[in-house]
Amino acid sequence: MIPGTAFYEQLAEQNQISEPSFGLYFTKVPNQPGSALVVGGIDYSHNSSAFEFYSMNSTFGVYYWSINMNNFSLGSASSSIPGLAIVNSLSPYIGVSGDFINQINDAIPAEVSCTKILSYPNLIIYPSEGSSLSVSPAFYYQATTSGKCIRMITEMTADIPGYIYLGTPFLRAYYTHYDFINQQIGIATSKIINQEVIDI
Questions:
Q1: Do 80 and 91 meet the contact criterion of CB atoms below 8 Å apart?
Q2: Is 106 within 8 Å of 199 (Cβ atoms)?
Q3: Cβ neighbour number for residue 83 with a 10 Å cutoff
Q4: Across the chain, what does the average pLDDT equal?
Q5: Distance CA 109, CA 129 (A)
Q6: Cα separation, 169 vs 133, whole angstroms
Q7: Residue (of 50, 49, 67) closest to 58 by Cα position
Q8: What is the Cα–Cα distance from 161 to 175, expressed in whole angstroms?
Q9: How far is it between the farthest Cα atoms of the chain?
Q10: Above 50 in pLDDT, residue 2?
């Protein structure tokens, strides 16, 4: 998501929406009807918890919708450098650094029987302000046609010390709202969360 001169600002300037903001709601199952881009406010039918708002990091200005983060962990794997949690709706993965992916490889398998995924730990992001954010293995694993589940956490590079890219596994778990005026990201638990495995 790129704040700046964007479609939601133009719509607000034309008085077609009440505020320059938008939200993303993803259904739990890919390609299932119901995903939504919500422009100009919040559709509360999509969330099952109250929104918590996190200040947007301004270091990278127009390039990222991101929040400051102390660290993140997955079982015994843990990042040790404060950095950024970057929302990336264009990626089907959660992306981490090469050092952290090596820890994850030791903690959980890249491919596993779908009947076993709920025995693995949640991925937990610890923002610098507000509550922690948790992603269940029901979201970071996806089922394949072979009957196996593959891990949707992969290595991604960035010129940022301490980072995690929050792609669609995160966005299926949370309904997110992007407030340009107040420079903040609202995050609430998605109403459709359950513990079924997601099919590709």
A1: no
A2: no
A3: 21
A4: 85
A5: 31
A6: 13
A7: 67
A8: 27
A9: 53
A10: no
